[in-house]
Write a structure and sequence with these properties.
Shape of chain B: globular
Number of strands of chain B: 11
Radius of gyration of chain B: 14 Å
Radius of gyration of chain A: 13 Å
Structural class of chain B: mainly beta
Helix content of chain B: under 10%
Distance between the termini of chain A: 36 Å
Oligomer: heterodimer
Strand content of chain A: over 45%
Strand content of chain B: over 45%
Number of strands of chain A: 11
Chain lengths: 112, 116
């Protein structure tokens, strides 16, 4: 099993550009999450999904959007990239609400 | 909503010594507390977790303790080794709302350095 796979691993965007961070899992987990990690700030929840067709905002959703058309995929969309979105982004999944997460290896995004 | 504070932010120990990282949480309804280890350039990896019906849990050299009254929990690593050097995160389940969304609120992280 591959677990949680994130692509790309690195990306540089110019201010105002858009992109999609891909996340896919092969563990048939219903719950999926997107976090961003900034130095000294821990991980902040951007969006989450408890099943296909269901998404909801986390702590820091502004400037992002998500969709969940299948159980496996949970892409994160950045529209009009801003320098404040420079961060490392992690996708995670969980089989149920009372279990720990399996994280992907992350996407390091720089907006210049 | 839940808030998690983690201390210290950095910790340096000699190989073979013990290391302790402490976290406090704000929501007394939280019932699940995992710990993650993040090595350089990698995603966080679950190393141990504890639920609110248990006061302590051990797995070889690592243990977690939970004090529900004081709303704090701690990670204990004994006989530290250089490969224990990493960033460690605590987390607490956010039980806000009527449904269990599985959301975790993370502490700020502790960078542990084990000196040979």
């Amino acid at each position: 099993n591959a677990g949680v796979t994130q692509t790309p691993k690195f990306r540089i965007l110019k201010i105002g550009q858009s992109m999609t961070l891909q996340c896919t899992q092969d563990m048939n987990h219903n719950y999926m999450y997107w976090y961003r990690q900034d130095p000294g700030m821990g991980l902040k929840l951007i969006y989450y999904s408890v099943g296909a067709g269901i998404t909801d905002k986390g702590e820091v959703p502004n400037g992002y959007n998500v969709s969940r058309s299948t159980t496996e995929d949970f892409p994160l969309r950045l529209e009009l990239a801003a320098p404040s979105q420079t961060s490392v982004y992690f996708c995670a999944s969980s089989p149920q609400g009372d279990y720990g997460y399996t994280f992907g290896s992350g996407t390091r995004l720089t907006v210049v | 909503g839940e808030n998690v504070e983690q201390h210290p932010s950095t910790l340096s120990v000699q190989e073979g010594d013990s290391a302790v990282i402490k976290c406090t949480y704000s929501d007394s309804a939280s019932n699940y507390f995992p710990w993650y280890k993040q090595e350089l350039g990698k995603g966080p990896q679950l190393i141990i977790d504890i639920r609110s019906n248990v006061g302590e849990k051990k797995d070889q050299r690592i243990a977690v303790t939970l004090n529900k009254t004081a709303k704090h929990f701690s990670l204990h690593i004994t006989e530290t080794q250089p490969e224990d050097s990493a960033v460690y995160f605590c987390a607490a389940r956010d039980r806000g709302g009527s449904s269990n969304t599985g959301k975790l609120i993370f502490g700020q992280g502790t960078t542990l350095q084990v000196k040979p």
